[in-house]
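notes to self, project folder thing:

trying the whole complex as one job this time. last attempt i did each chain seperately and stitching them together was a nightmare. two parts in total, labels are on each line so i dont mix them up again. if this works i'll redo the older ones the same way
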Amino acid sequence: MKAHLTRRYRFSASHRLHSDAMSDAENAATYGKCNNPYGHGHNYALEVTVSGQVDENGMVCNLVDLDGFVEREILERFDLQNLNTLPEFAETVPTTENLSMAVYDILQRGFRLGHLERVRFEETLMNSFEYAGEKL
Amino acid sequence: MVYLTRRAEFSASHYYHNPALSAEENRRLFGKCNNPNGHGHNYTLEVTVKGAVDPRSGFVIDLKQLKDTMNREVLEAMDHRFLNKEVPEFLTRIPTTENLAIAIWQRLAPKLTQARLHRVRVYETADLFVDFYGEA
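result (full assembly):
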């Protein structure tokens, strides 16, 4: 039978929302406080959902494998970093929308032990974002 | 169609062991969860039902019926129990969160008459949950 497994992770990072395609005035109008050139940070909560047939060991996938992949490929690279300095955001603004798509992409390309259903980000307790590929 | 979710909590112990594997393979696959004396969790269960709103009552389901069914079929059987030894499903299946969600679905689905079961979500911890939608 097919089940969906969701694991929740946390990391903290800083960012600045600023688009080179806009003038300074447009950036200030669009991003408000988030355009502060010194940046600001969040404690992000990341939920990763994978699905698959529950195997003879009662698992969709071994949590040790999922945790290891996320730790190595995402948390090690994103935790306590300035997102603007990462290659993922060389050309895109590190909004949580783009962060969701970047993390989805890393999982989609590299994690083979379960079917990636979606990633969900809480930027704060008030804002959350989901990306499930082009399905949504 | 309206979706209604009811939450409940129960505490239980379990351990993971696949009798088809050697003791060494079990230890490697399940790690600490293989300790035969068991360990416990405070589980949170979310049961979501769906249906049309009854024009007379304004209900998708009588919440008391849902609550009583969850208490009778799930909590009385599983709360403060050693799942491997006291819950019939887990004499032959490993009580992972995946299998727990499936077993709870199988207990509830035939007993809910007013609305259809949509999803069973079981949180093993705040950072790990499984969703089961009755999919084969």
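what i see at first glance: The mean pLDDT of chain B is 97.
need to look closer tmrw
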